[in-house]
Amino acid sequence: MSRLWARVAGLFRSKSFIGADQTGNKYFSRMEEIDVKEKRWVVFRREEDPTSVPVEWICWLNGQRKRAPTPEEMAELEARRERVKLNVARLKKEEEERKAREGTGRKITSIGKVEGPDLTSFVRHFPPDSKGAKSEEASEEADQSRVKEHEPEIVTAEHQPPEPRTTEPSGSGSSFRPGTWQPPS
């Protein structure tokens, strides 16, 4: 009951004004005797819009800062933010000018579709093939070798070659023998 009474009495206790920000929000604090902890809060000027609270004040409200930001500190940080915005705009402009000079800027013709990569520099590394039939012959040979690999080999029980003892599992299909594989020791 005494805790409840202390909380109710705390509502009428004096609160100390800490500061205000540029938008007119006011910040207060009060020491709680029960929790022995400082309570911090903000009273919004207009609507309760948490996005109108500057980062420095948010840090103070959450207890990440011991002291509230001073007006001088806020002015300095605002000037720094403006310098960063100007630098970003200048760098973007320089980047656009560089792309325009180099001619590497691509124009987007439709939204949601991306052009494929420019492979002209990649293709230049390969010498042109003097005879077009070479690549066809090579692909036919590769196809034939693949077919030979997958043809089932018919082996009778009398002429089976001895299986090498390896630590890796081997065999598939008709040549598979359960229990022949031993784990590495």
TrEMBL record:
Key words of the record: Electron transport, Membrane, Mitochondrion, Mitochondrion inner membrane, Respiratory chain, Transport
Localization, UniProt: Mitochondrion inner membrane
Family: Belongs to the complex I NDUFA12 subunit family.
Record-linked InterPro entries: NDUFA12
Protein name: NADH dehydrogenase [ubiquinone] 1 alpha subcomplex subunit 12
Membrane topology: Peripheral membrane protein
Regions of compositional bias (Basic and acidic residues) in chain numbering: 90-105, 126-153
Listed Polar residues bias regions: 167-177
GO terms for biological process, alphabetical: response to oxidative stress
Region of interest called Disordered, as start-end residue ranges on this chain: 90-185
Physiological role: Accessory subunit of the mitochondrial membrane respiratory chain NADH dehydrogenase (Complex I), that is believed not to be involved in catalysis. Complex I functions in the transfer of electrons from NADH to the respiratory chain. The immediate electron acceptor for the enzyme is believed to be ubiquinone.
One CC-aspect GO term: mitochondrial inner membrane
